[in-house]
Amino acid sequence: MPALLRRILLAPLPRLLWTGILGAGLFRLLVLVSPSTARLPNVTLGGALRNALMTLLLFVLSLWLLERKRPRDAGLAPSRAVPDTVRGFLLGAALLTAVVGVLALVGSYRIIGWAPVPDGTTRTLLFGRLLFILLCVGVFEELASRGIFFRLLEQGLGTWLAVILSGAFFGLGHLNNPGATWVSSLAIAVGPGALLAAAYVATRSLWIPIGLHWAWNLFEGPVWGTPVSGMATPVLAVARLPGSTALTGGDFGPEAGLPCIVLATALAVAFFVLAIRRHQIVTPAWMWWIGGRLRRTPPALPAPPASAPAPAVPPSSA
Questions:
Q1: Mind listing the pLDDT tens digit for each residue in 100-157?
Q2: Which domain holds residue 177?
Q3: Is residue 272 part of a domain?
């Protein structure tokens, strides 16, 4: 293959297209090999595990086939799995607890009792099951949204455009959830969408946003008993969210409310400041070229020729 054609076909944005085609092929293969697995709902344990494993396989294959890279080169180093996931998890737990605390202070969050436990299980088993399901959800969504979509957009368009576009993609991905509106999708794009991208940019570790995303869902739903992107998953507490939808997020959950948007955006700004200090902001070569062209000053006009001095006039004799 000619070098120029190869360079065009393996540029970041075409690689995003090839990765999408590869993902569709992998899912088609799964349908042929195990149709029952392909039909599992996303919210079940099997469906969540399927999504996580399929996205991990797609991530690894895309890196190897299109970039000749290993997962560690794209932020998924095995040695950082535990420490970085724990750091992200603690950050997400603190953030959602702070959001619930603000809602409680203004009278928009109230615990009304323990969550009921279905027959045939225990609270511990139910919590452990959701703990694993939400970990799989975090792996699936972060590898797809940050590991593939954001990372390739950033290589082709730069960090700032990638943050905007991936945030919009992340928000639109939640538009079909129960209780979702255009306002909730915008809130997801501005709040968690920007925050999770900023966490990756500042640390260049996908384990940080995976842990953050995991704790976000776990504390928003099973722990504090509020809807998670429109879905009710209480395990410990059952809560009510009286007050304005602008504060509580309504049926969609607190992540669409003002306190969550403000706190998540503030944390995202802090991560972006850290990224700037660490020189982690990506500016693609074509942007440097355009910037250089815009900054180029026109050549100076030649100076006008100096006029000849006037001849000296001898003094007149008296």
A1: 999 999 999 999 999 999 888 999 999 999 999 999 999 999 999 999 999 999 999 9
A2: 77-288
A3: yes
Q: What is the pLDDT of residues 273-293, one digit of tens each?
A: 999 999 999 998 878 778 777
pTM confidence score:
0.89
Nearest Cα neighbor of 255 from 162, 168, 192 is 192
Cα gap 211→195, rounded to integer Å = 13
Note whether residue 318 is domain-resident: no
When divided into structural domains, the chain yields a total of: 1
In a domain, 252, yes or no: yes
Residue 11 lies in a domain: no
Return d(Cα 76, Cα 84) in angstroms, integer. 10
pLDDT, residue 318, reads: 40
Helix (H, G, I), strand (E, B) or coil at 13: helix
Determine phi and psi for 110, rounding to 5 degrees: -145, 125
Q: What is the structure's pLDDT at 317?
A: 46
The DSSP call for residue 11 is: S
Closest CA to 216 of 52, 104, 94: 94
113, β-bridge pairs = 238
Quickly list H helices, 73-158.
81-105, 123-142, 151-157
Coil/strand/helix, residue 70:
coil
Q: What angle do CA 84, 231, 49 make, to 5 degrees?
A: 50
